[in-house]
Design a protein that fits this description.
Layout lengths: L1 E4 L13 E4 L4 H11 L4 H4 E2 L2 E2 L3 E5 L2 E2 L15 E6 L7
Parallel strand pairs: 1-7
Antiparallel strand pairs: 1-2, 3-4, 5-6, 5-7
Amino acid sequence: MAQIRIPTPLRPFANGQAAVAVQGETVGAALNDLTGQYPDLRPHLFDGPQLRSFVNIYLNQEDVRYLQGAETPLQAADTLLIIPSIAGGAV
């Protein structure tokens, strides 16, 4: 099974888990499995059916936006990383 690493700010919505084993043949299916296991994560990752624009998903350190997006195939040994964008500015 593939694994999704959960960033620290989102861990309270995944029962404190740092990583979760997921099933699915694609990135989208794995994310659906994750939010099926932890429904409280869904509003933090998705806006309706679409992944929120500030949520970046990496497959083995490659941004899936530059692969096949949600349709990117997964292997059992793959690791997905959820990286929320952080905005800031000068004071």
